[in-house]
Amino acid sequence: MASLPEQIGELRFRFMQELQEVSGSKDLETLKVKYLGKKGPLQSLMQELRHCLPEERPHSGKLINDLKEELVSHFEHSAARLKTQEQDRQFQKEWLDATLPGRRQFRGALHPITQVIHRIIDIFTEMGFSVRLGPDIDTDFFNFEGLNFPPDHPARDMQDTFYLSNHSILRTHTSNVQVHAMQECKPPLRIIAPGRCFRNEDISARSHVFFHQVEVLYIDKNVTFADLFATMDEFLSKLLGEKAETRFRPSYFPFVEPGLEVDVRCISCKGSGCRICKHSGWLEVFGAGMVHPNVLRKGNIDPEEYSGFAAGLGIERLTMLMRDIRDIRLFTENDIRFLEQFP
Ligand code: FA5
């Protein structure tokens, strides 16, 4: 049987060989348990001390303890080395360049038409109006008959109106809200109604088959033409600024008497005449007038007691003037290069 120093030498040699093969912290931990654990070879050597001669025991015990300290020191160094290696490997795998430019975030914005509708709502709510919504799909009664349109009026023609069935149509104007509102609420009534309109018309730089209007309706005792004029004049100067040049001219709509139309000086040609303003120098932006007694009656309101005014604002046209947009088609094309100009 080999002497104790020989056994110690052999153990050291075996340990060093096995240590060289260790490639990770887990393996190292297993090796540590194997050599320094209670059932390990060092512990067995300690037990063998009992069989040594008493005078050899201190020396042999020291040799075993020295080996134990040597192994512990190897374990500590190897553990530190392996930890650094493992961290380096992880850093390499998860490496990221903090100096790279970030990904561009796109900021959404409201459509320019929605922005202008919000501005119009703000102006009118400040004046005491409330917002009411009407249906996009409605009956002939609310879109035409209730508004005093004669049965043979050209606006009812298939060329202008999209009929969904004999009874339902896509509304051609937001004025369909008028009789709904009158039938549902008792006067005084002070409402605006923004919404979509549809007309079977030729598309051009200033007209579309799909556009937006905001209806204005004010009914009370003693409402006069002066109220209409003052309200709409105030509205226009708040929306377009004091400098915008406007003109009010008489016009005809079956549901108002008298009726008028309002034009704003064309932004594109500044009045000299171009295709947007049909060479007139003016762009028509809304129609208005005093509510016709027949319409009040359809809404169950007594025209002897009440009077009112109404207006229908063309939102695309107003937005074109405010934002210097030269073609109405841009609003529906969804071209991001156009839309991002209105943050
Ligand atoms: C009407 O629609 C009436 N309901 C307005 C009204 C309301 C009059 C209340 C009296 C009392 P008109 O068809 O003119 O009227 O349209 C009103 C505005 O909508 C026009 O001035 C214009 O700015 C806009 N508009 C009309 N048709 C189109 C279209 N095809 N494309 C874009 N905007 C349009």
What is the compact description of this entry?
The chain has two domains: 4-93; 112-339, Bira Bifunctional Protein, Domain 2 (BirA Bifunctional Protein, domain 2, 2-Layer Sandwich). Helices cover 41% and strands 18% of the residues.
Element layout with pairings:
Layout: H1 4-21, H2 25-36, H3 41-48, H4 57-93, H5 112-126, E1 130-131, E2 137-139, H6 140-143, E3 168-170, H7 177-184, E4 189-198, E5 210-220, H8 225-240, E6 246-251, E7 256-265, E8 282-291, H9 293-298, E9 307-314, H10 315-323, H11 330-333, H12 336-339
Parallel strand pairs: 1-4
Antiparallel strand pairs: 2-3, 4-5, 5-9, 6-7, 7-8, 8-9
The site of adenosine-5'-[phenylalaninyl-phosphate] has 24 residues, from strand 5, strand 7, strand 8, strand 9 and helix 10.
Give short descriptive properties of this protein:
single chain; 343 residues; alpha+beta; BirA Bifunctional Protein, domain 2; 2 domains; seven-stranded mixed sheet; two-stranded antiparallel sheet; 12 helices; 9 strands; 18% strand; rod-shaped; binds adenosine-5'-[phenylalaninyl-phosphate]
CATH topology of the largest domain: BirA Bifunctional Protein, domain 2
pLDDT < 50 stretches: none
The CATH fourth-level homologous superfamily of the largest domain? Bira Bifunctional Protein, Domain 2
Strands, count: 9
Describe the structure.
This protein has helices at residues 4-21, 25-36, 41-48, 57-93, 112-126, 140-143, 177-184, 225-240, 293-298, 315-323, 330-333, 336-339; strands at 130-131, 137-139, 168-170, 189-198, 210-220, 246-251, 256-265, 282-291, 307-314. With 343 residues, the protein is of the alpha+beta class. It has two domains: 4-93; 112-339, Bira Bifunctional Protein, Domain 2 (BirA Bifunctional Protein, domain 2). Helix 5 (112-126) crosses helix 10 (315-323). The model has no long low-confidence stretch (mean pLDDT 91). Adenosine-5'-[phenylalaninyl-phosphate] binds at residues 173, 175, 199, 201, 207-208, 211, 213, 253, 256, 259, 284-289, 310-312, 314, 316-317, 328.
